[in-house]
Amino acid sequence: MSSKISFIPQLVMIPQAKLRDYTTFQLGGPCRGLIQCKTPEDLETAIKQLNDKKLPFVLIGGGSNLVVSDEGIDCYVVRYVSDRPIVERDGNDVIVSGSTLLDALAQFSIEQGLAGLEYTSGIPGTVGGAVVGNAGAFGRQVGDVLKSATLLSSQGVLTKVGPEAFGFSYRHSNLKERSDMVVSVRFALRPGNREKLLEERRNILKIRREKHPNLTAHPCAGSFFRNIEPTSKAEKRQAAGWFLEEAGGKNLRVGGAMIYDKHANIIVKGPNCKASDIYQLSLKMQQIVKKKFNLDLVREVRFVGNVADQTPKELFW
User: Fold this and answer.
1) CA distance 264 to 284
2) Is the Cβ–Cβ distance between 111 and 81 less than 8 Å?
3) Quick check: is 223 catalytic?
């Protein structure tokens, strides 16, 4: 049941919303209320009013990189996701809202004959979340083409920054430790051959269908751990899934959490799965790789709430 919020009349809030309905793992208990924001203007309005009322909140995007406690979290949730792309072309740049789905941006750019984001085809989540996690594939990442971004602080202050403000590294930006929200982004792309880009998109989507689960049939958060930093002269990151498979990771299971049969670095939700099952399975995965290879796996996925003695932060995607 949704309702108008008395202090944000133009936005819709879902009281006691179950966060399992807003994460790709389909896990998570209730929050105080979930506020739907689609546009930058919606987001600014919601954050201002929440601050004015001194109400605690967190921000989510597509929920594709989260495991939320089955007990839920005791705060409001602002969900910044648009059901249609909010994006425009400016020369060889594209300007896009943080609420736009990353795959929709990839498709828009390709149809415009602009190269530089085609490798993001099929990656779930929003543009804002992609910037926070410096999402990428095939050796490329969104931080490589980010030209500028408009951020909104948790106190409601807007600032425009360049790429140097993010401290981008592999699957990381310093926004993970900050409370700033990605309102919109300008990406610097380059002219490309539209037909070749479309063919590359088709190939990438085919690869993802073959290696990654269908989220409806197998709820998950994609690759659970970052790939391993170079350990040889090849200077190339090595797939965490290879180390997990060699260490026997595909045979692991905790409660309703299990390893996807086609990819040892993906945990999927099975029957009666709890958020704590996901956490305990991730620990086992780390332990077997540490024991066999003396390597420390680093999670890409975030746990939120009372899953592992962790408390909600001001911001997560």
Assistant:
1) 13
2) no
3) yes
Residue entry with tokens 């004959």: 113
| CA 187/CA 296 separation, integer angstroms | 33
- pLDDT, tens only, 197-225: 999 999 999 999 998 999 999 999 999 99
Q: Are 44 and 240 in contact (CB under 8 A)?
A: no
Q: What is the mean pLDDT of residues 142-156?
A: 96
Q: DSSP letter string over 157-212?
A: -EEEE-GGGS--BTTB-GGGGS--EEEEEEEE-EE--HHHHHHHHHHHHHHHHHHS
For the stretch 228-254, pLDDT in tens is 876 544 456 789 999 999 999 999 999
User: Which is the catalytic residue, given 171, 173, 178, 282?
Assistant: 171
CA dist 99 and 83 (Å) reads: 9
Catalytic entry in 184, 223, 276, 282: 223
Q: Do the Cβ atoms of 28 and 72 come closer than 8 Å?
A: yes
pLDDT at 312: 44
Mean pLDDT of 158-167: 97
Q: Across the beta sheet with 253-254, what order do the strands follow? A: 220-223, 266-269, 257-259, 253-254
